[in-house]
Design goal:
Number of helices: 4
Number of strands: 5
Shape: elongated
CATH class of the domain at 1-94: Alpha Beta
Mean pLDDT: 83
Strand order of the largest sheet: 4-3-2-1-5
Oligomer: single chain
Order of helices and strands: EEEEHEHHH
Strand content: 5-15%
CATH topology of the domain at 1-94: S16 Ribosomal Protein, Chain: A
Distance between the termini: 191 Å
Radius of gyration: 80 Å
CATH architecture of the domain at 1-94: 2-Layer Sandwich
Largest sheet: 5 strands, mixed
Length: about 300
């Protein structure tokens, strides 16, 4: 049965790790195997390789053929070197002690190289981290400095604005005080003018009142005279009215008689008018009868 020392894939997508197994070459890659010899994890830096050297050498001596990747891993951990030394021991080229000593020295050197690589990687990581921290610190300091400059500029602008506002306030207060003084003076002037005008007006009104009183006195006398004259006229007119009433009372029977006489004459006039109308109707009928008889006579003659 042909044997292979090969890798069997495990792990999730994108992060695989492998087992080093001894399996039949006719089996599937991830199928049945005879023995697990170690692991290989390429996800770490450096890659993790753990191999049972004695069991791997045993399978190599039995004729198992490693794949290229498996051979590289076996060489990385000294399994191929030990297999080579065991061949020299079998041939008598060296003793087992010498072979073990050489293998031990080789393994020490290999471990030293691996450790140096790990230290170098750690140092590089530390330096990269230090550089990153320094860059972040510098950026933070720069940001703080910019913020301080901006804040200082803002404070300066605020101070200038405050001083400007204070100056404007003082100017406005001064202007307000001046305006208030001017308004006070103007009000005092207007008040004095108003008082003077009121005094003049009062004196003028007093003079006018006195004049009007002086003028009213003759008017009152005239009105009194007129009133007495009117009263006398009224008494005269009342006396005349009484006389007229008496005369009217005396003339009333004569007027009544005249009225009766006028109504009698009017009645007589109406009667005479009625008789005249009756006579006219009779004359008209007589004329019509004559005309009718004449017309009949004319017809007979014809």
């Amino acid at each position: 049965m042909p044997l292979k020392l090969r890798l069997q894939r495990h792990g999730k997508k994108g992060k695989p790790f492998y087992w080093l197994v001894a399996a039949d070459s006719r089996s599937k890659r991830d199928g049945r195997y005879l023995e697990k010899l170690g692991i290989y994890n390429p996800n770490t830096n450096p890659a993790t390789v753990k191999i049972d050297i004695d069991r791997a050498v045993n399978w190599l001596e039995k004729g198992a053929q490693p794949t290229d990747t498996a051979r590289t891993l076996l060489s990385y951990r000294g399994a191929m070197f030990k297999h080579h030394l065991n061949g020299g021991v079998k041939k008598g080229a060296l003793t087992q002690e010498e072979a073990d000593k050489k293998l031990t020295e080789w393994l020490k050197q290999k471990e030293a190289k691996i450790q140096a690589k790990k230290d170098g990687l750690s140092k590089d990581d530390a330096e990269a981290k230090a550089k990153r921290l320094a860059a972040e610190k510098e950026a933070s300091e720069k940001r703080l400095a910019d913020a301080a400059i901006k804040e200082a500029a803002t404070e300066e602008a605020a101070t200038k604005e405050a001083s400007t506002e204070e100056a404007n306030t003082q100017e406005s207060d001064t202007e307000a005080a001046t305006d208030e003084e001017a308004a006070t003076e103007l009000a005092a002037t207007e008040e004095a003018s108003a008082e003077e005008a009121a005094t003049k007006e009062a004196s003028t009104e007093e003079a006018i009142t006195q004049e009007s009183d002086a003028e009213a006195a003759p008017d009152e006398e005239v009105a009194t005279k007129e009133a007495s004259t009117e009263e006398a006229n009224t008494q005269e007119s009342d006396a005349e009215a009484a006389t007229d009433e008496e005369a009217a009372a005396e003339q009333a029977p004569a007027e009544e008689a005249a009225t009766k006489e006028a109504s009698t004459e009017e009645a007589n006039t109406q009667e005479s008018d009625a008789e005249a109308a009756t006579d006219e109707e009779a004359a008209t009928e007589e004329g019509a009868d004559k005309k009718t008889s004449k017309t009949e006579e004319d017809k007979k003659e014809e």
